[in-house]
Structure formats: structure tokens, C-alpha cells
């Protein structure tokens, strides 16, 4: 199997994006991998620190290994939004393919300092590193019933991204260009600030879009043309899983067999992931 770096280079050159789909249950993984298999797509499984603590770092790696061997697909595993070098070291030791250091709450100098240490440590172990400059406004993926306001000061400043990339030797950079973690159920959708993204893309490093849920398809397509090689999706897949499960249990009050009442939720996740794979253009790229 070709390494993750190969797929990021390919995505950057051929202008498609690889989806990172977060999970905290085996049923979500089943849906995600079934979609990737159907559409012959490389895929990244993501766990935040919280998700990885629930699943277990080693268990997440074991799942990736089994599914990689069984399907022959390029399935990768990323530790999403790691807040400390120590935790990223644990993920690397467990066998993660990639780690994301989220130093977005730190002063830029401190973010650069720790990111450089992570990059040095990870490179020796052939692990891919994602850095981050700018903030997504929220830490957790969730539903907002009131309009989510993007704060201008949280968006990535191109000159800071340049300074960061010059000093910290990361492979890909997460940028805040108008998206946020979660879904605004009041109906407002995030819009990508294309000019800002293009200015950052001129630096020449592959970029990552967080908060992919709810972003209009046209914005996503344009973002991919402007250097985005990875798009993170969590909320839409969580909604599909949880709402379907709630409905199934409501409709079958006597049902107690998990493999029966979880089937529809697996399929709901698969459907979301298939739609995203097609939108990101990563189908038939293995
Ligand atoms: P959404 O929950 O908005 O899809 O964002 C996911 C994400 O960016 C994980 O890092």
C-alpha cells in the first residue's frame, strides 16, 4: 500500500480531497469503510482526543489494520486536534499514520515551537503531521440552534500561516477560512472565504479544511481547486447515525438485538460518506 504522503501529493496535483471521517464506535467505522470500498476511495479515519479515549488508541489502530488487510484499501488513521505533544506521542506509539497538533489557542511562537518538535519526532517515525493556524471558533462538533457567528479574528492570517510554515516542518496545514465544527440547525451555512484561501494556497503547502459538515457543495468544490487536500466530516455522520438509531429504537420498542437495530445506522453513515466521497472527488483514486 502506498503511504498517506503519496495520496496527499496526488490529491494536491490532481485536485481532489481525501475525506477524514471521525468515529467513536465500530458501527460508524463499518459505514465509513463500506462507502470507501464501494467507491474505491482512499480514506482517513479520525479520532479526536475524546473519541480516541473512548475507543482506545490501540483498539483504533487494530481496527484500521484489520480493515486495511481485509479490503486492501488505503485506510489511514489520524489523531484529530491533539492538544499536547505527550498525547500525540502516545498515538504515534500506538501506530497512528498521522497526527494533528492543534496549537490554535497558543500564541503563534508557542504553536510554532511545539509544532516543530512534533514534526521532528513524527518524521523520524514516518508519521504525517497536520499543523493549524487560526481557529474554528468551537472545539466540539455539535448542533447549534442559534446562528453561529464566525469571528473575523479567528480566521487564518496568511502572513501568520507563512511564518508558521517557514519554521514548523509540518506536512499539511489546517486553515480557518469560514467553516466551523458542527451544524447550524437554524439554517445558516458556513461560507468559505475563497480569496483568503487562495492567498494562503500561494505559499504552496497542501491545506486541510475542518468543519466540513453543512458547507455548501459549490464552496467545497472551489476550495479543492485552491489547495484543500483533506476535508474533515464529523457532525453530518453523527447526525445520520444518532437520528437513525433513535428512530429505529422508537419504532421497534421490543427490539433488544444490537446487530439488528444498528443496521440502519450503519447504512445511514455509509450514505453520508458516499455523498462526501463523490463531492470531494476521491472516488477511483486508489
Ligand atoms: P464537522 O463536525 O463540522 O463535520 O467538523 C469535523 C472536524 O473538523 C473534525 O476535526
TrEMBL record:
GO process terms (BP): carbohydrate metabolic process
Annotated binding of Zn(2+) 1, by residue: 81, 181, 210
Keyword entries, A-Z: Metal-binding, Zinc
Binding site for dihydroxyacetone phosphate: 182, 211-213, 232-235
UniProt source species: Candidatus Staskawiczbacteria bacterium RIFCSPHIGHO2_01_FULL_39_25
Pfam families: F_bP_aldolase
Active-site annotation: 80 (proton donor)
Name the UniProt record assigns to this protein: Tagatose-bisphosphate aldolase
Tagged with keyword Transmembrane helix: no
Cofactor, free-text remark: Binds 2 Zn(2+) ions per subunit. One is catalytic and the other provides a structural contribution.
GO molecular function: aldehyde-lyase activity; zinc ion binding
Positions annotated to bind Zn(2+) 2: 102, 132
Cofactor: Zn(2+)
NCBIfam families: cbbA
Amino acid at each position: 500500500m502506498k503511504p498517506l504522503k503519496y495520496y496527499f501529493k496526488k490529491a494536491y496535483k490532481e485536485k481532489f480531497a481525501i475525506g477524514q471521517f471521525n468515529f467513536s464506535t465500530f458501527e460508524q467505522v463499518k459505514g465509513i469503510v463500506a462507502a470507501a470500498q464501494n467507491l474505491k476511495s482512499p480514506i482517513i479515519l479520525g479520532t479526536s482526543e475524546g473519541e480516541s479515549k473512548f475507543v482506545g488508541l490501540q483498539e483504533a489502530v487494530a481496527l484500521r489494520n484489520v480493515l486495511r488487510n481485509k479490503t486492501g484499501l488505503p485506510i489511514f488513521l489520524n489523531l484529530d486536534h491533539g492538544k499536547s505533544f505527550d498525547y500525540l506521542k502516545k498515538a504515534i506509539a500506538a501506530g497512528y499514520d498521522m497526527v494533528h497538533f492543534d496549537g490554535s489557542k497558543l500564541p503563534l511562537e508557542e504553536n510554532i515551537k511545539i509544532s516543530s518538535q512534533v514534526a521532528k519526532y513524527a518524521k523520524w517515525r514516518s508519521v504525517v503531521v497536520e499543523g493549524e493556524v487560526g481557529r474554528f471558533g468551537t472545539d466540539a462538533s455539535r448542533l447549534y440552534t442559534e446562528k453561529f457567528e464566525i469571528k473575523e479574528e479567528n480566521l487564518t492570517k496568511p502572513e501568520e500561516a507563512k511564518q508558521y510554515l517557514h519554521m514548523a516542518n509540518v506536512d499539511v496545514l489546517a486553515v480557518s477560512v469560514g467553516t466551523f465544527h458542527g451544524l447550524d440547525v437554524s439554517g445558516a451555512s458556513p461560507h468559505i472565504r475563497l480569496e483568503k484561501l487562495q492567498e494562503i494556497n500561494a505559499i504552496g503547502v497542501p491545506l486541510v479544511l475542518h468543519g466540513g459538515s453543512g458547507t455548501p457543495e459549490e464552496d467545497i468544490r472551489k476550495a479543492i481547486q485552491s489547495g484543500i487536500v483533506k476535508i474533515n466530516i464529523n457532525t453530518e455522520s453523527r447526525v445520520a447515525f444518532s437520528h437513525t438509531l433513535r428512530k429505529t429504537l422508537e419504532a421497534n420498542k421490543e427490539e433488544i438485538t444490537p446487530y439488528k437495530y444498528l443496521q440502519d445506522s450503519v447504512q445511514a453513515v455509509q450514505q453520508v460518506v458516499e455523498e462526501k466521497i463523490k463531492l470531494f472527488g476521491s472516488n477511483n483514486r486508489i
